[in-house]
Amino acid sequence: MPTIYPAVLTAIVATFLIAACGGDTALPNTEPTAIVETEATQEAPTPPLWRYVNSGWVSPSNQQSANAFSRELRVAVITSSEELEDFNRTVISKRTVGTGTSLSRAEFPGSVLLVAYLLWLPVQGDPLSVVGLEIDGNRAVVDLELDEDAQGRAYPYLYAPMTMVTVDRDKFPAEGPVEFVFRLDGEWQVTLTDTLE
Q1: Are 129 and 163 in contact (CB under 8 A)?
Q2: In-domain check, residue 15
Q3: Tens-binned pLDDT, residue by residue, of the chain (197 aa)
């Protein structure tokens, strides 16, 4: 019995120490708690206003004002099949990458075709593209980008890199002329006004 006594005494002392040191047991919280559910909403990116139609290299027939050392941005806004035929007569297509599907995206009169080409660059890759379009009332800003590091075999002759996109006609105001501002690499370049009729 003398050997059990120290063990009992140690247990009693430990119980008093635990109680003295704040050995209170935590009671469960019986108050209702509101569960806040957060839904992770991820908005899908807004599709661009324009659709790719064609790109490549062209040789304009009216190139008297531009020589091999000039850098001139030329643009066109096309709203009918007749205007598209006129444009095709003024440029000779040398290399294009549009497909039958992309070329059929310009359905008139429900589409507006935006065309830009840059005089002059050595033929290499497909460097000119539309990267942005903002329409604010009767003003549309078309952002173009020139890829200076175009891949592919370089040819020794000069052609104008060209890009062509279509925009639905209902994206523009129903009345009044629309001012189109074509910017190349963030710089203001060419302004063209069209009635879209």
Answers
A1: yes
A2: no
A3: 455 556 655 666 555 555 555 555 444 555 555 555 555 567 777 889 999 999 988 888 876 666 666 788 999 999 999 999 999 898 887 778 888 788 888 899 999 999 999 988 777 776 899 999 999 999 999 999 988 776 677 766 778 899 999 999 999 999 889 999 999 988 888 999 999 98
Residue 117 to residue 29: CA distance in whole angstroms? 72
Give CA–CA dist 162/153, Å, rounded: 18
Q: Which domain holds residue 182?
A: 50-194
Rounded CA-CA distance 197/189 in Å is 24
Number of domains in the chain: 1
Within a domain: 28: no
Q: Which residues fall within 8 angstroms of residue 75, CB to CB, at 6 or more apart?
A: 114, 115, 116, 142, 180, 182, 190, 192
Flag whether 43 is in a domain: no
CA distances for 197 relative to 22, 89, 110, 141, angstroms: 86, 21, 11, 19
From CA 70, how far away is CA 82, in angstroms rounded? 30
Q: How far apart are CA 9 and CA 189, in angstroms?
A: 96
Report if residue 178 sits inside a domain: yes
